[in-house]
Amino acid sequence: MSGRSQDLVLTPEILLRAYAAGIFPMSETRDDDELFWVDPEYRGVIPLDHGFHIPRKLKKFIRTRPFEVHLDRDFESVMHACAAAGEGRRETWINKEIIRLYTGLHRMGHAHSVECWQDGELVGGLYGVSLKGAFFGESMFSRTTHASKVALVYLVTLLNHGGYSLLDAQFVTDHLRQFGAFEVPRKRYHDFLDKALAHDAKFPARRSQLADGTSGSLDSLVMGFLQSTTQTS
């Protein structure tokens, strides 16, 4: 289900209301000036509980701490990297209007990025929208092995720590299915969404400030999360 939005001047505030209603915007291609609203019959969800699965080889890789992982260090660059064509994707849906709207949400504190840096270069990451107890994952990219996967594990760790109850993946791909992503019909998704919007959660304002207001190591938090998933798998 979708509808064109070219006659409506979108603002970040309207975008938040759309997410609260269970819809989100996309464009046909990155060169298309128009947006349309999407309300999928089936929605992708990534579990934030014991249903989240981390492949064993990826756990081993993360424990080597191959990247410096930062939060919101360069949000707009993450968006541009997600918008660029790359291996396995000749075309993307992130156009200039999408970048304008989501950088606006970022300035409002409602959009965040998890970024993997290596030798001073941004090599992978993801971004999404935070609203109450829901986080809506938008897109991810990787310029080196496993970078987007590492960013996702860090994101799930932060969402669990911050009290989120829903990680919306929009659509399930093979890349996400390995982590336990699954599809739910629209009505069940709205039940999940209503529950998530009924309580507050907190995304850390910066890497060294965790969601409970205490300073600590993000890497240590992730290592603890890896251990907990090992014990329950």
Structure description:
- This protein has 233 residues and is of the alpha+beta class.
- Helix content is 37%, strand content 23%.
- The radius of gyration is 17 Å and the shape is globular.
- About 2% of the residues have low confidence.
Entry keywords:
8 helices; three-stranded antiparallel beta sheet; 233 residues; 10 strands; alpha+beta
Topology summary:
Blueprint: E1 2-4, H1 12-20, E2 24-26, E3 36-38, E4 42-45, H2 56-63, E5 68-71, H3 75-83, H4 96-108, E6 111-118, E7 121-131, E8 134-142, H5 147-162, E9 166-170, H6 174-177, E10 182-185, H7 186-197, H8 218-232
Parallel strand pairs: 8-9
Antiparallel strand pairs: 1-3, 2-3, 4-9, 4-10, 5-6, 6-7, 7-8
What does this entry show, briefly?
This protein has helices at residues 12-20, 56-63, 75-83, 96-108, 147-162, 174-177, 186-197, 218-232, and strands at residues 2-4, 24-26, 36-38, 42-45, 68-71, 111-118, 121-131, 134-142, 166-170, 182-185.
Radius of gyration: 17 Å
H/E element order: EHEEEHEHHEEEHEHEHH
What is the helical fraction, as a range of percent?
Answer: 25-40%
Structural class comes to: alpha+beta
Q: Let me know the average pLDDT.
A: 89
Biggest sheet, strands in spatial order? Answer: 5-6-7-8-9-4-10
Strand content: 15-25%
Overall geometry comes to: globular
The total beta strand count reads: 10
Uncertain residue segments: 211-215
